[in-house]
Amino acid sequence: MTSLLQRRVSELGPWFHNLRLRDQVEEVQTAPLHPLGDFPANFWQFFKQAVPDDLHGLSVLDIGCNAGFYSFEMKRRGASRVLGVDHDPAYLTQARFAAEQLGLDVEFVRGDVYDIDRLVGTESFDFVVFMGVLYHLRHPLYALEKVARLVRGRLLFQTMERGSWDITDFADDLPFDERDVFFDERFPRMYFIEHRYAGDKTNWWIPNPACTRALLRTCNLSVLDHPCQEVYVCEPTPITGAT
Question: Which CATH superfamily is domain 39-236 in?
Fold first, then answer.
């Protein structure tokens, strides 16, 4: 017999985050047949150590929160305030329902990354989570610049990456007649997806790792840790000469 919790989870589906929710009777997984397995819990295992165990007194902004997995993990580590933002009302309905079931005080609001500065006003955050969003954006650098300005402490960043994993240094300036460097697969580059990738028409731009780092540097972010492929922990780069 289908329980009330199971029925409600089904009604709110499909889910992209596989969450474990409990009532007084049983535990229910929201996406047990996820094509990526137990996602994102299995992915989280590769970089969870890059986030402090104790976030008490700190504020967290989770941009592109989906059903709230990372928001919940940050709250479980004691963050004083966690704000999850997503543009999809269906994901936000899932997230609010999951927060209630889990007994976690997380705030979820609807918003777009391009308007994130207007959404939060002058507020900045001790920890900003920006996972799995960049490659879905038509204007990724524009969005990343906005996100970077909200980082007071650390940024937990992830993007899909393709191309060469090798990284090397290139000159800060190149002559107009330089062409060979653009055939070097280690040069920062982004691949444009005109139609679909993995069946998803919202996959627009996929950087190689060199490009990911270049994008972060361009937005005044320094990479502190690279715990696994595609995941970066960053902090704002100190401005030279600042007092």
Answer: Vaccinia Virus protein VP39 (3.40.50.150)
